[in-house]
């Protein structure tokens, strides 16, 4: 992992049902790298267990804070955080990366969090408040027990609107967003896929909305009907065939070529790889339009090749 950062678990606590918070301090006395609201780090939990987590502390603090929802059907990362990591343990992380950066300007800002999606939203609220921006936050949770960081959000008074599904049933999302000025705001949202899909529908019907999303899961179409086989070549000339029903990451892993990855759904950016030749078929949710058009980078966990061969800097 490039730009390794060594950290120590300085504190741990439960902040909501199935949500464990870790405070990470420098392990070697070197100050932690700076970051901006919306950033995440890749945490190396074990040699083959790397996961991306949003930073939810205040930028500029001398420690980092992450909060992790335990997923019983996950791939082991959250269980490791909840049941294996202990105060005093040392870990390696990447330097912070930001695919969900808050840009404050003249327009109002509406922050929307669903469940554990509150983690990248917390530092955005702090930054917007510090800047004196015109901002609001809609904080959604299934139940009071599942709602994380309510105490911190309460400090912002009526800038924060909360809704709990167990109190009054499902929210009329469109009406609530309209009431909060969403039709003319920059809307930053993080949460489960159904919430983000509903926000996309909302923004599509309101041209004045600028929508910026942070996804926890991809679209699930890394492999599609009609995909073709192709070859991945790495820098030393080795060629690895990729079947029509296989991802590049799967083929590379089977060939013994290690590519650092986390989400395996094209949402975190951990596996971003330089393209030396060939045209990527981008299927991630990380790269911007200009980055896609350049063809210089690819996320091998979900993206493919438009032609017969692609050469990666591995």
Automatic annotation (TrEMBL):
InterPro entries: 2Fe-2S_ferredoxin-like_sf, 2Fe-2S_ferredoxin-type, 2Fe2S_fd_BS, Beta-grasp_dom_sf, FAD-bd_FR_type, FNR_nucleotide-bd, MRET, Riboflavin_synthase-like_b-brl. It is an enzyme of class 1 (oxidoreductase). SUPFAM superfamilies: 2Fe-2S ferredoxin-like, Ferredoxin reductase-like, C-terminal NADP-linked domain, Riboflavin synthase domain-like. Pfam families: Fer2. Keywords: 2Fe-2S, Flavoprotein, Iron, Iron-sulfur, Metal-binding, Oxidoreductase. Its cofactor is FAD. Its EC number is 1.14.13.-. GO terms for molecular function: 2 iron, 2 sulfur cluster binding; metal ion binding; oxidoreductase activity. This is Flavodoxin reductases (Ferredoxin-NADPH reductases) family 1. It comes from Nocardioides simplex.
